[in-house]
Specification:
With about 270 residues, the chain is an alpha/beta fold. Helix content is about 35%, strand content about 20%. The structure holds S-adenosylmethionine.
Length: about 270
């Protein structure tokens, strides 16, 4: 893969400094977590990791049983713990984690060495960008992505690539934060949030992504808001782990004021 395809902010964020070690993530995963049913009084680092595993489970449950025959790929797999969880707990036939950053792929292979040895033909990690996936046409039953699509420069290419690699009837499940429609949404987000200001996160309107999926050949496109199970829990945890006034606390405000929301999007290839 041409390394110039990695946007500079993504290259920096997921390079030598392993973002997963930041106290706000703390434990290998790099997502905001799904906190449904969790006690938010005084969340511990173990709770934080649990929230991140729960986000994966929330996504993976969208692939109906039986799952044993399904060949899956995860796009933007980071350190690969979610792909290993998918195989271990959901018993898919194969799971291949894909990431654009070579350091992340290297970490995923190192961190999950034991799982790779246990499932040599069923678990793999490989380099690749979301809009040029390293799979043959129609070779997968499912594609999923957890809190990575906000980094993709555009989602039209991703929608087409997902459609290309899935077999007819195959399913795509994407979770991350999407923005509202509106002329000033992007500007307001970049004022509130450092990750939008520096270009790491791209403001993708939910309406544009669901339209892209339809144009790429997907049907039964659904988008479910899960913001109420993400932002309050995350913000409660951040209150104890980031300095007062840190911009990351503004995600909660951005959600409450309707600028963005966290969604699970599902789509089935016609
Ligand atoms: C916030 S992390 C999420 C990692 C993992 N899904 C998790 O929940 O722990 C986002 C990941 O997406 C990857 N990524 C960013 N842009 C990408 C692209 N265009 N194609 C594939 N992966 C990408 C990054 O390198 C990073 O590892």
């Amino acid at each position: 893969m041409d390394q110039n395809r990695i946007p500079p902010t993504v290259r920096r964020t997921y390079g030598a400094d392993d973002l997963s070690t930041a106290p706000s993530f703390g434990g290998g995963f790099i997502n905001f977590g799904y906190w449904q049913g969790m006690d938010l009084t005084a969340p511990t680092p173990e709770d934080r990791v649990h929230s991140q595993e729960q986000l994966y489970r929330r996504v993976l449950r969208e692939f109906p049983e039986p799952r044993e025959h399904r060949r899956l790929a995860e796009v933007g797999c980071g350190r690969g713990l979610g792909a290993a969880l998918a195989l271990r707990e959901f018993r898919f036939a194969t799971v291949t984690g894909v990431d654009i950053h070579p350091d992340q792929v290297e970490r995923a292979r190192a961190v999950n060495a034991k799982a790779l040895a246990t499932y040599p033909d069923r678990l793999a990690y490989t380099l690749g960008p979301a809009d040029d996936l390293p799979f043959a046409d129609g070779s997968l039953d499912g594609v999923y992505s957890v809190e990575a699509a906000q980094h993709f420069r555009e989602l039209t290419g991703f929608a087409h690539e997902a459609a290309r690699v899935l077999r007819p009837g195959g399913r795509l499940v994407v979770t991350t934060f999407f923005t509202a429609d509106g002329p000033d949404v992007a500007e307001r987000l970049s004022i509130l949030l450092g990750s939008f200001a520096d270009g790491l996160d791209v403001p993708h309107p939910l309406s544009a992504f669901t339209a892209d999926l339809g144009k790429a050949g997907f049907g039964d496109v659904t988008a479910t808001s899960i913001g109420a199970d993400v932002w309050p829990g995350l913000d409660r945890y951040l209150a104890d782990t980031v300095p007062p006034g840190h911009w990351s606390r503004n995600f909660h405000h951005a959600w409450r004021t309707g600028l963005l929301d966290y969604h699970v999007v599902t789509a089935d290839l016609a």
